[in-house]
Each structure stands twice: as C-alpha cells, then as structure tokens.
Amino acid sequence: MRSVKICASLFWLLFSAVLSREAFRLPMGEMKDPGAGFFPFMVALVTGLLAVIALFQSLREQAGVPAPCSAERFRWWNLVVILAALIAYALTLEKLGLMINTFLFMLLLLKVIEPQTWTKTLLASSITAVFSEFFFNVLLGAQIPAGILGF
Amino acid sequence: MDVFRDLLFGFSIATLPMNLLFCFIGVLVGTLIGVLPGIGPPAALSLLLPVTFHVPPVSAIILLAGIMYGAMYGGSTTSILVNIPGEAASVVTCLDGYRMARQGRAGAALGISAFGSFIAGTVSIFLLIFLAPTLAKFALRFGPPEYFSLMIMGLSILVYLARGSIINALIMVCFGLMLGTVGLDNMTGVTRFTYKITSLMDGLGLVQIVIGLFGVSEVFLNVERAFKQEVLKTKIKGLLPNREEWRRSIFPIGRGTIIGFFLGVIPGMSVVIPTFLSYTLEKRLSKHPEKFGTGMIEGVAGPESANNAASCGTLVPMLSLGIPTGAATALLLGALMIHGLRPGPLLMTESPEVFWGVVASLYVGNVMLLILNLPLIPLWVKILKIPYHYLFPLILLFCIIGSYTTNNNSYDIIIMTIFGMIGYLMKKLDYEAAPLVLALVLGPIMENAVRRSLVISDGDVTVFFTRPISAFFLIAGLLILFSPLFLKKTRVSAELRTGEE
Question: Which residue of A has its CA nearest to B168?
C-alpha cells in the first residue's frame, strides 16, 4: 500500500505541474482584476503543495505487513468488458439506435459477466430493449436516436 | 402570521394533481433507490434530472426532493433485512436493526424506522419553515467575500469529516475545483482546458461526473468479485411497534430529530454524520450501553430519525443561501439553475411558488411515505431478491440514458465512463468522492466570489478578514481544517470509521 500511496502522490504532483503550466498560459490578469488563469493556477499550486505533503507522509510511513489477499479471484476482465461495452454503446448509439444498442448491451453483459442461458439472456435483453424504447422515447419523450430502425 | 399564509400558499401548489403525482413518483423512486444497494440519492437524482426538463420547475424540484428524502426511508429496509445499507446514511441502522430482524423483530424495526422518520420529517419541516426565511434575510447582507468564506468553511467541514486522510480529501477538493474551471470563463469568456473539444465548451457536466463516480464505479466494484447475495428468509410480521417499544423510542426519535436537523444545516455535514452522532448519544444515555449492537430499538429509532431530519436540514442552506451541503443538494441546486431559477436569498421573493411549494411538498411526501412504506415492504423485499447479474446491466443502462439525455450527446456517455473508472480507482485508493463533487459545484461560484472580492477591494486580499461575517466563516473554516494538527481527530471521525468497517 505504501508504494501505491507514493505513486498516487507522484501522480498528483505531475498533475499539478501540468495544470499550473496550462493555467499559466491563460490570461493571469493582476491582483485587482484577476484573469481567467488566476484561479486554476492557484488551485494547481495548492494541489502541488498537498501532493508534496502526501508524498512525505507516504515516505515516512513504515512498510507494514501486506494486506492479506482476498480468497476470491479478482475478475479484471469483467471491468474490461463493461468499459468496452459502455464505450461501444456511446459510439454506436447514433447509428444503431436505442433499441438495438440496448439489446446488444444487455446480451453482452448477461452472457459474459455471469453467463446465463441463451433463453434467459435473449428474453431479458429483448424485454429491456422494448421497454426502454417505450419508457424513455414514447412515455418520457427523451428523443434518444432510433437509429436504423428509424421509428 | 406571514409564514403560515406562505405555507398555505405552498400547500395550494403542492396539492395540485400534477405536483402530487410528481411527489408520489419522487418518493417511490427514492425509496426504491434507497432499497437498492449501490445506487444512492446523488446517482438517482442525476438519472432523473433530464426527465424533469420538460416539466414546470416546481414539479421538477418536488420530484427531485422526493427522491432525496424517499431514499432515507428506503435505505433502512436493506440495513434491517439483509444487513446491507441501501445508502451511507443507513450504515448505522445495520448494527441493531439487522440484529432485531435476526431475532424475529424485523417488523418492529421497520415500523419504528418508518414512524421515526415521519415524526422527524414533520418536525424538521416546521424548523425549516422558520429557519430558512430568517437565514435568507440575513444572507442579503452577504457580499462576494462572505460567500467565498462560507464556501471555504463548508468545504473545510466536509474535508475534516472525510473518512480517510485529510490530505487526500483536500486533493479531491482541488481536483473538483479544477474540473469546475473547464469550459468558458464566465467573467471574461476565455475558454479553459477545452483543447478544441466543442463538447467541453460548456464545461464538464455535473450529471455525467456524479453518475460515473457514484453509479458506474459501484458496479465496477461489485463485478470484480463473484456476486454474493444474501436472501432474507425471516417472515416480516407486526409492523406496528408495541407500547414498550414506543416508550423506549420516543426520546431517541426526539433527540435524533434535533441532532439531524441542526447538523444537516451546516454545509459539509451531509446526512451521514448525524446518524452516527445520534447512535453514539443513545448508547451513552442508555442504562444498558453494552446491549447496543444486539438489537436495541433505540439504536434504530435515533439514527433513522436523524437521517430524515438531516435530509430536511440540508435544504435550508440550499434554498436560502444557494449553497449545497453535499452531492445530493448540489444536484438539486443544479436542477434549480437548469430550470432558470436563481437559488439564494432571493429565491423566496422571486419564485415563492417554488420555495413554498417544495417546502409543503416535503410534508405531503412524508405522509405519502408513511402510507406507502409499510405496505410496500414485501415488494421491496422481492426487489432485493432480483439477482445482481440482472440488476447491474439495468443500473448501467439507466446511467447511460441519464448521461445521454442531459445534452443528447453521446460524448457524455464517454465522460461518464471515464469518471466511472476514476471513481473506481478513487474507492480503491481511499479517496472520497463527496469533497470532489461539492468542490465541482461550488468551484465556479467560489471563483466568481474570489475574483469579484479582489476587484471590489482593489486587489487587497485582507478583504476576507476585515469584513466581520467573512472573517468569522474563514477563521472557523481554517480552525476546523487545521485542528487535526493540534488535536487528534474527534470521536465523530473515529465512530465513522468504526461504523463503516
């Protein structure tokens, strides 16, 4: 955990350095009329200061006994699948539309994360797709793209 | 009296059929959100915010406020029945509520929780009616330095009460303030940190960030391990507490109400702290403190009343000063602005129908919740039995729709996903999301206040200390923030940590 904390502090230090440079490029104004860069620059400086304190705290911390590993497996692939599914949903929503996208999204998650039978998966995906079109677009008038189905 | 005349006017607005319907939907959805672990009031408010764009402002705010206090009612159900708090304010209810359920007294625990919440809600509404207008009149004396200092004080309290390291919480505040600067500078029109991305011109959306940090990240946390779902096996009977249970609960309800309301009013306190304080107080006052944690009804009655009273108290600074006290009120404030209203001391005079309509709807909502909550408990139990592998895709779908419909822009779904990942990492590294969200909302207001203060004072930074009200808030904020250097963290934080473990 100590090394993770050191890495996190270094990240914030880098973040504040990049940000203060970016803020400094904006008009800074003067004390009696601060410009657009004044506030972000000040915040970036404070972030840097806090990151330095956090770094010193982490360095002073004793390297303790490592936390016991959980008996359960860390299922990192689930996170990757969900991330991919969310990004794919965003990129294809305008083209495929709410119903098709929702159907495919549900199908993927129900089949991959905690695999269900095809019957259950298809049924749940279809119901969710139809219901979301009816609820959001018809009932609430949310104007989410209909895509290739075009209604 | 003017207040009662205004309140009657509020009731005439709140009882309009359309507003009753919105209030009903709000409290129902709020209870459902409270029941479902993993999706709290901020995420629910974000999801439903776009739905309110097409309705009148007063109906929209009634619906959103209903979600907020409905969640307080619903949160206790999962705490008592399955030992999983539906949201953070019900964590402490698990300690005795779940034990009561294991002893076959789930009905009494649920019953006292609902009645306690109702009593607390009712008393708090009356406190709000008297306190909010007084505070609004006082706030008319505030200039930019006072607003800036008040916000510093609010953020300091939130940081001080953060679970983990104060430095981490302060970094989150800075991160939130930085995120708030993205987009057009509202004083000079200069674009900041947009990198020629058109969607960033209006800034990063609060809704997308909150949904990502609270909703999506929670799903990530839940799917990284095998799903575990405890199904309730005990039968629920006897929802009405008996005379002895009432006798033991009535004072805890009263104390919980007072603690909850007045702590809820303080920016940064949120609704979680009062519940822990109430529990600690009841344990201390009890003749049998050793029995707390084994199924004491006082341990349910006090905290449950406190969280309901606090959710009402948080509305006081939001409605009268335009200052949110936490993530949920920040979203309510955002909703007021989206609907073209100006939250702050003038809200009461400029839009009395909204102010008094919302206040009256709180009472109407409380009555609805009491009537709804007890008969619907079997339904909530059934919902709790829905396997998580069906529930999480639906939660994600709601997150997607909530993000997209704010601006009808697919790019917002990507922003939400990024913040979902950031939220997941934050939880892993023990960084809290609440200071970030509050700073994100307060950021633009704070920047405006600090720059205007410097313009007014001709660049003299002592302006924050030479004006008495500003000096009071600023010194109080700084004392709170730096007190851990001189004192060990108070019992509140310790209790919080113990409770959450």
Answer: A54
> Do A52 and A84 belong together in one domain?
no
Instruction: Give ∠ CA B443-B447-B450 in degrees, rounded to 5.
Output: 135
Specify the residue for token string 């406020």.
B65
Question: What are the pLDDT digits (tens) for A39-84?
Answer: 999 999 999 999 999 999 888 877 665 655 555 677 888 899 999 9
Beta strands in B140-182 (DSSP E): none
- Residues A33, A94, single domain; the answer is no
DSSP lists the bridge partners of residue B263 as none
* A65 domain residue, yes or no: no
Written as six digits, the tokens of B36 are 């479902």
Q: Give chain A's domain count.
A: 2
pLDDT band at A102 (very low <50, low <70, confident <90, very high): very high
For residues A80 and A137, membership in a common domain is answered with: yes
Check CB contact under 8 Å for A33 and B219.
no
B223-271 pLDDT per residue, tens: 887 666 555 555 666 667 888 888 999 999 999 999 989 888 876 666 7
Which residue, among A24, A50, A102, A108, would best test binding to B if mutated, counting the most B CBs under 10 Å from its CB? Answer: A50
**B54/A141 CB distance under 8 A:** yes
- What are the tens digits of pLDDT across the range B93-144? 888 888 888 888 888 888 888 889 889 988 988 888 888 888 777 777 788 8
Q: List the Cα angle B216/B222/B224 in 5-degree steps.
A: 105
Residues A80 and A45 reside in one and the same domain: no
> What are the chain A neighbours of B190 within 8 Å (beta carbons)?
26-27, 35-36
Instruction: Please answer whether residues B66 and B34 qualify as being in contact, where contact means their C-beta atoms are separated by less than 8 angstroms.
Output: no
Query: How many Cβ atoms sit within 10 Å of the Cβ of residue B407?
Result: 15
pLDDT value of residue A135: 81
DSSP state of B340: T
Range of the domain at A24: 2-60
**Is there a contact between B159 and B173 (Cβ–Cβ < 8 Å)?**
yes
User: If you compute the radius of gyration of chain A from its CA atoms, what whole number of angstroms results?
Assistant: 24
Percentage, residues of chain B above pLDDT 90: 15
Identify whether residues A81 and A29 lie together within a single domain: no
Residue among B279, B235, B272, B290 nearest B110 (CA): B235
Q: Indicate if the pLDDT at residue B70 is higher than 50.
A: yes
CB contact under 8 A, B393 and A36: no
